[in-house]
Amino acid sequence: MVLVLKKGASKKDIEAIEKLLYKEKASGGFNAKKYNGIMNLKEDPLTIQKKLRDEWERDLS
């Protein structure tokens, strides 16, 4: 959708365009709360993160 706001538009015109812009809902999206508490980890998340970051520092040769 393309909305054109011309220079010198009245306040009424601007409000009409804003209504059109905010009228549409955001399409899609991701509901992260749906997965909250789903994973059962055997290790502390911080420990896992440190191990993953440490992989870059280790010498693999």
Keywords:
elongated, 61 residues, 38% helix, 2 helices, mainly alpha
Structural account:
The structure is a single chain. With 61 residues, this protein is an all-alpha fold. Helix content is 38%, strand content 0%. The termini are far apart. The mean pLDDT is 82.
SSE blueprint and pairings:
Elements: H1 11-23, H2 45-54
What class, by secondary structure content?
mainly alpha
Task: Compute the number of strand runs.
Answer: 0
C-alpha termini separation: 55 Å
User: Which sequence of SSEs, written as H and E, runs from N to C?
Assistant: HH
> What is the percentage of strand-forming residues?
under 5%
Question: What is the arithmetic mean of pLDDT?
Answer: 82
Estimated radius of gyration: 25 Å
Helix count, DSSP H or I runs of 4 or more residues: 2
Helix content: 25-40%
Overall 3D form: elongated
Low-confidence stretches: none
What's the story with the biggest beta sheet? none
Give a short synopsis of this structure.
With 61 residues, the protein is an all-alpha fold. It is built from two helices and no strands. The model has no long low-confidence stretch (mean pLDDT 82).
